[in-house]
Amino acid sequence: MVRVLHIFHNMGNGGIEHFVMDFYRHIDREKVQFDFLTSVEERGYFDDEILLLGGKIYRAYPLKKNPIKNYRDIVRIVQENHYDIVHRHTGSAFGYYDLRAARHGGAKHLILHSHNPQVGKPWIHHVCEKLLKIECIPVACSKEAGEFLFGKNTQVKVINNAIDCDKYKYNADVRQKVREELRISNAFVVGHIGRFEDQKNHKKLLEIFAEILKLNPNSKLVCIGSGSLLEACRKQAEELKISEHTLFLGNRNDVEQVLQSFDVFVFPSLYEGFSITQIEAQVNGLTVFTSKDRVSSSSNITGNVHFIPLEESAKIWAEKIWAEDLTRDYRAIDVVKNAGYDIYDIAGELSEYYQNMGQKE
Fold first, then answer.
1. Secondary structure of residue 235 in the 3-state scheme
2. In which order are the strands placed within the sheet that holds 32-38?
3. End-to-end CA distance of the chain, in Å?
4. What is the pLDDT of residues 172-203, one digit of tens each?
5. Is residue 134 within 8 Å of 100, Cβ to Cβ?
6. Per residue in 6-30, is it b (16+ CB within 10 Å) or e — as a string?
7. I need a surface site. Which of 237, 245, 247, 324 has the fewest CB within 10 A?
8. How distant is the alpha carbon of residue 150 from its chain centre?
9. pLDDT band at 360 (very low <50, low <70, confident <90, very high)
C-alpha cells in the first residue's frame, strides 16, 4: 500500500479540502491511503471521517506561534513515518516551505498543487518564490493556476476538480422539501456557497442582491459557509435593509440538497483557480454568474456560466442576471461527466498516479 501525506495549513471546510476528501472517499484505499498534516492546533472539519477511512492526522507545532518548531515537526513526522510522497495543497509559493521540510525529512516525491491563479497578499508569494523554491512535481487545478505558480514554460499536470456528479443531480422532490423547510417556497432564490473571507467577495454579492430585490421584491439570498467576515456581512445586510430576505445558513453537511433550492448561482469572487462549487452548480443545471478575468474561463463546462467584470456596478450585475433565461439545464450533468469532471473516473487515474510514483526508487 502507498501512503500519501497531504499537507494543508488548516484542514477546514473549504473547496480544496472538499476536493481532496472526495478523492479520498472514492480511491481504492486498499492500494492508496491518505494521511493529513496541518499546522494549527484546532481539530479539522473532516477529522472524524479521515480516521474512519483509515487515515492518520498529524498536527505540527502551530506555524504562527513558532515557524522553526513547525518546520522541525514536519521534518520529524515525515522522517518517523517514512513518507516518500508528500502532496502540498496551496494557493501561493509559501507551499515550498512545507515541501522543504518534507525533503529534509526524507520524502522522495514532492508534489506542489496550485489551486489559485492569484493570491490575496502578492508580496508574501513573491518573497517565498525567491527564497523557498525547490524542485518538485508541479500540479494544478487549471492551466491558469499552473502558470501562476510555476510559470508558462513549465509542464504542469492538471488534475480536474472532479466531483460526485450524481450527488448533485437535480431532484425536484428535494428542491420542494428544502424550499419548504427554509420557508422560501415561492421566492426567486439567489444562491452562493463559499467561505466568508475576502476572496469570495460577499460584500459585492450582498450589493448585487440588494439590486435584484428592487427588480423582484419576492427574492431571497441563501448563503452557505462560515468565516471571519460572517458577522460583518450580517451587519452589511442590515445596512442594505435586506436582512429579512437573506439566509446565512453557516456550514452545512447537506450542500447538495440546499443547492436544489437555488434558481441562480452568483459568485463574484476576487479570484478562483477552478471553483468546485461552480461545477456543482452546473451539474445541478443552474446558470452561474461569476467574475470575468478573475475566475478561470475553463470553468464554463456547460456553457451556462456568464462572466461579468467586477468593475461593473451591482446594478448592472443584477440587471444582467434578471434579463437572462435561467431555465434549468437538465442535460448539464451529462456534459460535465463527458468533460472529465466525474470523481469516479478521475479517482482511478489519481490512484494509479500515486501507485506508479510509489514504485519508483
1. helix
2. 57-59, 32-38, 2-7, 85-90, 109-114, 137-140, 157-158
3. 15
4. 999 999 999 999 999 999 999 999 999 999 99
5. yes
6. bbbbebbbbbbbbbbbbbbebbeee
7. 324
8. 20
9. low
